Amino acid sequence: MRAVFKTSYDKDIDLHPDWWERGKIAVLLGLLALLPFLVGEYYLAEATNTLIWSLAGLGLMLLVGHSGQVSLGHAGFMAIGAYVDAGLMNAGVPWIIAFPLAGLAAGCFGAIVAIPAVRMSGIYLAIATLALFVIIEEMIIILEPVTGGVGGIFAPSITLFGIDFDRYASLNNFYWLVLVIVALTTWAYANVLRSPTGRSFLAVRDSEVSARALGINVTRTKALAFGLSCGVTGLAGALMGHYISFFNYELFSIFISINLLLVVTIGGLGFIQGAFFGAILITAVPQLIAILRDGLNATVGIDLGGIPGLDTLIFSVILVGFIIYEPTGLYGRWLKFRAYVQLFPLARRDMFRRQKTYLKTERSK
Amino acid sequence: MSLLEVTDLAVHFGGVKAVDGVSFDVVEGEVFSIIGPNGAGKSTIFNLISRFYEPTRGTIRFDGTELTALSAHDVAGMGIARTFQNIELFDHSTVLDNLLMGRHRHRATNWVQDLLFLPKVRAEERAHRQNVEEVMEFLELEAYRDKMIAGLPYGVRKVVEIGRALAMGPKMILLDEPASGLSVEESQDVSYWIEDMRRDMGLSVLMVEHDMRLVTQVSDRVLAVANGKPLALGTPAEVQSDPTVQAAYLGTDVSEGAVA
Prior knowledge:
The complex is a heterodimer of chains A (365) and B (260).
Chain A lengths: L8 H5 L5 H20 L2 H26 L7 H17 L4 H23 L4 H21 L1 H4 L5 E2 L4 E2 L2 E2 L6 H23 L2 H11 L1 H6 L4 H27 L1 E2 L6 H14 L4 H28 L10 H16 L3 H15 L22
Helix pairs in contact in A: 2-8, 3-8, 3-11, 3-12, 3-13, 4-5, 4-6, 4-11, 5-11, 9-11, 12-13, 12-15, 13-15
Chain B lengths: L1 E12 L2 E12 L3 E5 L6 H8 L7 E6 L2 E2 L5 H4 L4 E3 L12 H7 L9 H6 L2 H20 L15 H14 L4 E5 L7 H16 L4 E5 L3 H7 L2 E6 L2 E6 L1 H6 L1 H8 L5 H4 L1
Parallel strand pairs in B: 3-8, 3-9, 6-7, 7-8
Antiparallel strand pairs in B: 1-2, 1-4, 4-5, 9-10
């Protein structure tokens, strides 16, 4: 097992304590950058989809995992991002301006609705954000001149400095573009977590009373978390629009919100890595089921294609299983596995068992 | 000069007069204790100073500023730090991060700078870290630096909470039962720390405590309260020998006239 010998405060402040860790990230980024040369077009498109889901997952992770608020309305914020981006581009605004504006619009909208919403928590906040989602959906249908209403809207292909980033004609370029955006967002996310802003999010999540006593403005902090979260999700929505090319309000259904919650919970709440693990699972499982179904049909002759809702059933079983047996998600499971290998044969079963915490009675609230 | 001046403070929850007409002042560099039986309103006084409750009447002046005009999160900015009777730490963060959260009132960067982690953010982080390490050395918390709060024993958590309050770099620290649930050795440590806070850091200490040994050891003055009303104010010895205080503590069923 490797141990890091810390010789300065910077070792703790840096994102990675040593060159070994930095090297691992470099190798991962390198592999991802080389992916277009390693896999075929079909899988590259799937990888792009996974990255877009990761981006949306990062957005929701900031809210659910790090500031302790829940949202069932994030499909709505994705929709805002997608429609603002596509709408501006259709009006002749170049992508390089339309894209940040899409994020900004979703973020600002999120922060504004957050101000009344942050007074609620838990299930009440979930219901409020769900209602918000319904409002956004209806608005899209009503604002037909801008959004195309039920008919839908076309997201023009991206051109940047004369280079074409079309999702079909030049998928490689589009993939790299998405990869760069996801990498930058992840970097910014990690920066937030190691700075006072991220600590104030955690403080608000774990104990609002003492956050206030430390001088943290709880309402403003929650609204900021909401705004950042919705902004990132809006960016993901904009990319999703380009990925699908032609879409209407049905692309951003309530199931997208639920799937996003699955991404963060199954991935591992409170870990950046969790958003990626979750996104991989959520995009890969339907593919796996399809492959399995075809395989069964071809070899054994059982046709599962006729069974409706098989995907949903399997998803639900996975979710229930995770909540009962692995609340820390895929990433938590990975951490345990890694500790087991590193400490072999000294790992003990109880090592990760949480000590029962003391009851917090008489909260002064 | 008095740092904190509480005048005729009262808070009523419906018909319950939790605090009713309490007045006291804490002089700069003083250790001031509030004692009283359970439910006397001691923690409520703390929560009023922290602005968690809105007083029904009365004023709280700190360093020349009226606190009742501020909101809860501005109280920390005035230089008032506090601990809680039932530990309110951030359970899923390390001891180091908990103490760093205490530095929040000194943050000089905004979220955009944090997002990009500009050189200024790093410089600020180093300064905060330096400060937090000094607090950790003072309270001998180094061994727990990277441990999660959720896995720490009760006694250590109590100390981490004091550490988080000290990391704020306050003028005054409010300690809500710092020795409750601690062993004799641990509460002895607490009394030394309070001495050092006053002597070396120049802090004023306002403390609620049941452990009379600790109170007598460190306090300059003591206020006894019962049923939200002040009973006696003076040196620890004076207050302890006050017959109304004894009646309140021993629960003797003597009429007020007989006691006076």
